[in-house]
Design goal:
By secondary structure, the chain is an alpha+beta fold. It contains twelve helices and five strands. Helix 10 crosses helix 11. It is elongated and about 70 Å long. The chain starts with 6 loop residues before the first helix and ends in a 12-residue tail after the last helix.
């Protein structure tokens, strides 16, 4: 006998389908943003955050950060890069930006719970639901959030094993609506989005960094100093002024870099540096 689905189950499925649709859009946007901001991690995180803030009605701002894990149980992580975005009120967005720029100094609850320690699996934090309710009202975190019109939040912490050491990619969706609370469905979708963002970070930033390190190993010490400046758009005159060298010396180094990298123009040099162009199979050492 066929049994109809209850109204509450149907509503839950409908909401999760909506989140999944928005998550796919956010993932596609994050991938496009990587191409729009080559090598610029802060703008990429901010633009990604704006899309994540739109995942669920009621949530209206988000922040995304790359961190070095906390070194001790009660310590805070080192915030390396961060971005804030969303359609929320400007004072709330500014407060979130200040919170991150100060290294999450007001967060006195996450440390004891180990949210920012290195762990092999992602961590989901559904705001007050997963923090110490008995300490919430007297916490610096609650005072900071209440003072800036921030209410509940959902946070996902994804561990990354990178060449420079362990890192954490943290995505947090916030709300200025006191009636909003993150659901389990929202948490699952945010976890999926954070995982895809971690993959996009590796593809868009870590792999290019490793490729650039390989290119720099082909050059002399003086050329290694000049190559990023020239590849990122400085003229030979500007590079000479910045490094205290003569224009003639910079020009001779530029010719040597072209030869070592197998390029014939500044445009080819820039494209190789940004990963738009594949390295030549005949690259030569310095």
């Amino acid at each position: 006998m066929h049994t109809s689905q209850s109204g509450s189950d149907a509503l839950s499925d409908s909401r999760e389908a909506l989140w999944a649709s928005r998550a796919r859009a956010a993932v596609a946007a994050a991938s496009a943003i990587t191409a729009q901001h080559p090598g610029k991690l802060g703008p990429w995180l901010a633009a990604s955050s704006h899309h994540f803030a739109l995942l669920e009605p009621g949530a209206d701002l988000a922040w995304t950060a790359l961190m070095s894990p906390a070194a001790a149980p009660d310590a805070l992580p080192l915030v390396l890069f961060w971005g804030v975005g969303g359609p929320g009120p400007k004072p709330a967005l500014a407060a979130s930006a200040a919170h991150l720029s100060k290294g999450l100094a007001e967060d006195d609850l996450s440390g004891p719970h180990g949210h920012f320690r290195w762990q092999r699996a992602p961590v989901i934090v559904r705001g007050r639901h997963d923090l110490d309710a008995s300490r919430w009202n007297d916490s610096s975190l609650a005072r900071y959030r209440h003072a800036n019109g921030l209410h509940d939040f959902c946070r996902v912490v994804v561990p990354l094993s990178e060449p420079e050491g362990p890192r954490l990619l943290v995505v947090q969706v916030d709300s200025t609506n006191p009636a909003w609370a993150p659901s389990e469905g929202m948490s699952r979708v945010l976890l999926e989005v954070a995982g895809v963002l971690a993959s996009a970070y590796h593809t868009g930033f870590v792999e290019p960094m490793l490729r650039r390190e390989g290119l720099l190993r082909l050059l002399s010490p003086a050329q290694r100093e000049l190559a990023p400046l020239l590849a990122e758009g400085l003229t030979e005159r500007e590079a000479a002024e910045q490094t205290g060298r003569s224009i003639h010396t910079v020009h001779e180094h530029a010719k040597a870099i072209y030869h070592a990298w197998g390029v014939r123009s500044r445009m080819e040099m820039r494209d190789l540096w940004l990963g738009v162009r594949s390295p030549s199979t005949s690259l030569s050492g310095a």
